[in-house]
Amino acid sequence: VLRFFGYFKETVDGSPAEHYRIRICVFFYYLEDDTMHIAEPRQTNSGITQGYFVKRHRLEKPGGKGYYVEQDLKVGMSIEVYGKVFKLYDCDDSTRKFYAEELKTPQPKAEVCPEDNFGKSHKVIKKAANKMMNPVKLFMEARLGKFIHHNTKSFLENDRKVLRFFCRWDDTSVYGETNLYILNYYLADATVEVLMIKEQNSGRDPFPALLKRQKLPKSTFEVTPSIINIGALGEGVEYYDAKDF
Predict the structure, then answer these.
(1) Cα Rg for the chain, rounded, in angstroms?
(2) Cβ neighbour number for residue 237 with a 10 Å cutoff
């Protein structure tokens, strides 16, 4: 598969912030049957529908002069597809190697793709890996429902892997009884949840979760709220892991 990078300019009406939009597309040319498809990478908050621009098939040249073949594709040229004019500004390394070794026609050097006002104002800033998040920001995002993954490697390797244990609690207090539970240990983030096994006609109100999913400390004293623990983020606290079960 040959891969070229191109763009076309689209007029934006009714916007004081921009007058045109540069829409970048990727051309995939399949050597086995001379078909081609064009895909537009999705851009966050672009406000336009993106994805497949042209599905895979043979693209006809303007005026019915035949179909596009690999000899027609060249960096720096303009290609018309269904009334839209694309400018090819670059191709990948394997495509350059194919043209240089197989067709003996090396591709020209890459050109600079122009940038519109939207692209300049929506540049993605790469975050440093494994950077410690501010405690206040961590608390606010968790409060809004964001699940924080501190160990991405463990999450990718162990996601949806759960250890399941059946356990029993013998309540020896007055009017106490034996209760049955299921303990789930999630390998992805080392969290634990304890769920009650519901029994028919037990006379108890439904109370499914004895412990919601969270990290389980071996000593509750270390995580008990107090003035001296504010901002400590559980430093030095020892939690249960898979080896303890």
Answers:
(1) 30
(2) 16
Q: Which residues pair with 195 in a beta bridge?
A: 182, 209
**In 146-236, which ranges are E strands?**
162-170, 178-186, 191-196, 209-214
What residue ranges of the chain have pLDDT lower than 70? 122-133, 147-152, 221-236
The CB density around residue 22, as the number of other CB atoms within 10 Å, is 17
H helices of the chain, in order, are 93-101, 117-121, 135-143, 152-158
Element holding 88 (H helix, E strand): strand 84-91
Distance spanning both ends of the chain, measured CA to CA: 51
DSSP state of 17: S
CA 22 vs. chain centroid, Å, equals 24
pTM confidence score: 0.50
**Rounded-to-integer distance, Cα 118 and Cα 138, Å:** 30
Rounded Cα–Cα distance for residues 230 and 236 (Å):
14
| DSSP secondary structure letters along 31-62 | TTTTEEEEEE---TT--S--EEEEEEEPPBPG
Angle at alpha carbon of residue 219, lines to 213 and 225, rounded to 5°:
75
Judge whether 185 and 245 are in contact, CB under 8 Å: yes
Looking at residue 148, the DSSP 8-state letter turns out to be P
The pLDDT tens digits for 129-188 are 556 667 777 777 777 777 666 666 777 788 889 999 999 988 888 877 888 899 999 998
Cα 183 from Cα 163, distance rounded (Å):
8
Is the distance from CB of 19 to CB of 12 less than 8 angstroms? Answer: yes
